[in-house]
Every structure is written in C-alpha cells, then in structure tokens.
Write a structure and sequence with these properties.
This protein has ten helices and twelve strands. By secondary structure, the protein is an alpha/beta fold. The structure holds glutamic acid (GLU). Glutamic acid (GLU) binds next to loops.
C-alpha cells in the first residue's frame, strides 16, 4: 500500500450503486484529482455483502471513467490487521468488553450531560468476576474507552464541525471489526488524507478522527457532500425507480449520459453537453460545490427493446432538480 496522499471512494458491496452513490464517487475522484492526490478504491465488505455486487460496482465506476492507482483494497482481507490494532488498544487499557444488547443500551438511563444515543457506560467498569459471569451469557463486543465526549474535525463543505464521541464499538459481539475501526485503520494505511463522502456520515467523522489521533495518525481533511434525494426530499434509494446504471441504461441513458447528468447537477456542464471526467476535473472548484441536495427524478419509461437506439430524448432525461439553485450558504 502506498502512502501517497490520496482521496478514496469506499462503497459497501451490498447491492448496485445508485446515482447518488455514483455522484459521490465522481466527487471524491474530482476532489482528489483537483488537489493532485492519488485515488484509492476500497470495498467495505465486512458485512452485508451481496455476491457479485463488488464487480458490478467497479464496472459502473470504470464506465464513468474513474481510475484508481492501486489494486482495490478489500476489507475482508484485512481482519488480522484490525485485530492487531485492537490488541494494542486492549494492551494499553483503552478498551473494555461490553455485553449490552442494543435494547439494553436504549433502555439504560443515560449519564447526565451525555449526548443522546451515546453508550451509557454500563459495562465500562465491570469487575473481573462480573465480566467472567457475563461472558457465559453472550460474546462480548470490544468498545473504545473514550476520554473525550466530543471531537472537532475540519470539513471543506461544513467548516469546523464538533460532534459526539462515546465509547464506540471496535469489534462487534459477532467478532466482525466495526465500521469506524476499519475505516480509520485503512485510511491511515492507504495514505488517505482527504475523505469525501455523503453528508449522512458527517456525524461519524469526530469518532473516526478521534480514533485516528489515538492511534497516532493525523486525521484526514473531510468533505461531506450533499446527498441525492428523491422528489419527497428523502435520501434516494433503489425503490425510487430507475436509479442504477443498469436501470438507467434500460431507459436509454448510457454511462456518458449519467456522467453528463452528474456534471450538470454539480453546475459543471450545461444541459445536453457531452462531458468527460477530465473536462469536469478541469472545471471543478471545491469551493463552488452546490450545498443543497440534488433532487433526482428517475425516468419513467423503459426504452422498448429493439426500439430506436441512441441518446435519450431530452424530455426523457431525469430532471436536475435543485442543481441550478444558487450556491450560497
Ligand atoms: N462504506 C460506507 C458506505 O458505503 C462509506 C464509508 C466511508 O466513506 O467512510 O456508506
């Protein structure tokens, strides 16, 4: 693994990417290339894997023109590395075993002034005998013994952001390394100093930056970018219609058409203009990124098999919603 300063895209291969995921991937690539960084592709396949989804995701990203500098990193190949990091934290007394179920955590009275939803500390100070007893009931998760309750990160889109940090899970009760741990370990190992991802993950950044600091790494610079939403303003999902590359192709929108829509949604290209990723990179200005979600209205009528080939008629192309809204805020 190289330590060239890099950006990255880190999908979970739980299904096909939809246009919101694809737009975030394009943005991560544009941010990295516009700032002379390398670019890393990582499969977050510790959990909820759908067989074949990784290959389809990579095909879709390549079809849009994305390139990456190293072989794709699969988290499933790195469980020994995560384990070794946790062993060090255990040895340094920075962890504790937790036997709580989700329900117990929800029902436990929270400590005064603790952030809502924070781990209430139930298992933080169990005695050796108590731990021994509880191990017989269920396998323990390993939590970080956090010594802060909040942490500050710098976000290119949001400015300074201070968010909650609690005793978050490092290794789940089922033995699977937790998302926050794997992200931090892998970002550091791959030289990632710029994290561009959907702004639904903003609240995870303080935990990850805190853990990175504890492990002796400099936290990356973050850019949590606006999500793509459906007509009702909710986060776009597969059930919203033709939202994946395959669905869109069936509606006559090929990869070039998808890239053109993404470019338009970012204010980087005009309606109907043919674009390439390099052209978008030449025009990309991180400071001018639209701050509002992009409302995506999927096309409704699949192209008839054997019907006229070629580009979709403009009226069939999805609307670029609020893409032309002023970039203020
Ligand atoms: N794998 C996560 C997801 O697909 C993203 C993780 C990250 O970018 O930190 O939502």
């Amino acid at each position: 693994m190289s330590s060239t300063p890099s950006g990255r895209f880190a999908p979970s291969p739980s299904g096909d990417l939809h246009i919101g995921n694809l737009r975030t991937a394009v943005l991560a690539w544009l941010f990295a290339r516009a700032t002379d960084r390398g670019f890393v592709l990582r499969m977050e396949d510790l959990d909820r894997v759908r067989p074949g989804a990784d290959v389809r995701q990579l095909d879709d990203l390549r079809a849009l023109g994305l390139t990456w500098d190293e072989p794709v990193l699969y988290q499933s190949s790195r469980t020994a590395v995560y384990r070794a990091v946790v062993d060090e934290l255990v040895a340094a007394r920075r962890t504790f075993e937790c036997f709580c179920t989700r329900r117990e955590i929800l029902e436990a009275p929270s400590a005064p002034h603790a952030p809502q939803g924070a781990y209430p500390g139930t298992c933080r100070d169990l005695t050796a005998a108590q731990r021994e007893r509880r191990r017989a009931e269920r396998p323990a998760a390993i939590r970080l013994r956090a010594d802060v309750s909040s942490f500050r990160v710098h976000d290119v889109c949001r400015g300074e952001f201070i968010g909650d940090v609690d005793d978050f899970v490092l290794i789940r009760g089922d033995g699977i390394p937790a998302y926050n741990l794997a992200v931090v370990v892998d970002d550091a190992a791959s030289g990632i100093d710029q994290v561009v991802r959907g702004d639904d993950l903003l609240s995870s950044a303080p935990r990850q930056a805190y853990l990175a600091t504890l492990l002796g790494h400099r936290p990356p610079e973050y850019a949590h970018v606006p999500l793509v939403c459906n007509r009702d303003g909710a986060r776009l999902a597969k059930r919203d219609g033709a939202v994946t590359m395959a669905d869109l192709a069936a509606h006559g929108v090929d990869a070039a058409g998808v890239l053109a829509m993404i470019g338009q949604s970012l204010g980087l290209s005009a309606p109907g203009e043919a674009v390439t990723l390099d052209l978008l990179a030449a025009r990309f200005d991180p400071a001018a990124l639209p701050r509002d979600p992009w409302i995506f209205v999927p096309p409704e009528h699949p192209r008839l098999i054997g019907g006229p080939a070629g580009k979709p008629r403009p009226t069939e192309a999805p609307q670029a919603g609020s893409s032309s809204s002023p970039r203020t805020k």
